[in-house]
Amino acid sequence: MADAANICAMCNEPAMAVCTRCCSIKYCSKNCQKVDWPIHKPLCCAFSTFGVDKRPSEDHVIALLFPQDKTKPQLIWLHCPWQRDIEDNPTRQLPEYKELIGENDLIGVSSLQFDTLLDREIYDTISVLYRENFLADGSKFNESISHLKPAGVGHHWCGPVIAYVGRGSDDHPRAMRDVNLGDYRHVVDFF
């Protein structure tokens, strides 16, 4: 099997081409790219123009926000400041998510390290944050997630959802990196 960076986003074949607009996802064929287009399209143009040159600080990473009241996911800058130990050495980055998810909400997190639809490992850990009690706390139905999958398929998500990527396969990665649209595909497969 090809290394992770060179595997098609839709199957386990070696990737032969990259999306020419966003340059963020690879496919083995035009057919796989065409099958992925309805999912890829909402973020392709946004990703190509998001602009890492506009990064608010070194502690910000590109993340995905799935708003509850919009039909499309969004790219956001997620502040992930380094936590420090007693000697002021950086230990790990932690995302600041409360203004996006809610101040008083219990937070659930799912760590994605395997894509069951593709039957393959995800080499960096994708974390999906959500309101833990979203089925009981009055959260609105998540429109942006529901528009990504056929009706009746998968989980009934409510409230805002954030996805970000940590480097490596640890459940609690030390450092974060920018999300790419290959990561986005894994998140959609998870939903």
From TrEMBL:
InterPro entries tied to this protein: Znf_MYND
GO molecular function, one term: zinc ion binding
Metal-binding in keyword set: yes
Source taxon at top rank: Eukaryota
Keywords associated with the record: Metal-binding, Zinc, Zinc-finger
Domain MYND-type positions: 8-44
SUPFAM superfamilies documented for this protein: HIT/MYND zinc finger-like
Protein name: MYND-type domain-containing protein
